[in-house]
Amino acid sequence: MGKVVMYSSVSVDGFVADEKDQPGPLFEWLTSGEVPLDASGALTVSQTSYDYTRPYWDQIGATVVGRHVFDMTDGWDGKPPGGVDHVVVVTHRSAPEGWDPEAPFHFVDGVEAAVAKAQELAGDRIVEVAAGDVGGQVFAAGLVDEVRMDLVPVVFGSGKRYFGSVEAQHLLADPDEVIAGNRVLHLRFRVRR
Description:
It contains four helices and twelve strands. By secondary structure, the chain is of the alpha/beta class. The protein has a single domain (4-191), classed as 3-Layer(aba) Sandwich (Dihydrofolate Reductase, subunit A), CATH 3.40.430.10. Strands 7-6-5-8-1-9-12-11 form an eight-stranded mixed sheet, with helices on both faces. Strands 2-10 form a two-stranded antiparallel sheet. The mean pLDDT is 95.
């Protein structure tokens, strides 16, 4: 079974979106270089960011997101983002009316069930959990093995927190990686158990 990784781009004050659910400049690093990050060519990063991000993306077998993110993105038109094989959506509602049942999206009630379904789908590959409210719930439940952050030099002041509503203290190990790219600092921590 692959490890569970909580991930997102984040402001230096710990937000993944502003009060209006907008990422603002959090994704500018994805267009701040010369190296194409994916086949579309729309994402171009520094060589350093490519060397860090591309191998990670290639290891992801399933991504867990909340229904709010799914709805905001219109379900990525039924095509998982970043070439991920499967998306598991944490929701109390069923798939949207007219949703293509062949699309590799799975609608699951509860974070524990979502992580279990994602692990089943991913096999020995990584299960990525989107940071924010659902990610914070998965983290608080003790199901996250690693935290990855793409730290962007911006202060939001308020908004949607990286760890959602987690309020208890949780210790992470010393950083396994700290890598500077254009407009981003890539950080990776193991979760202490």
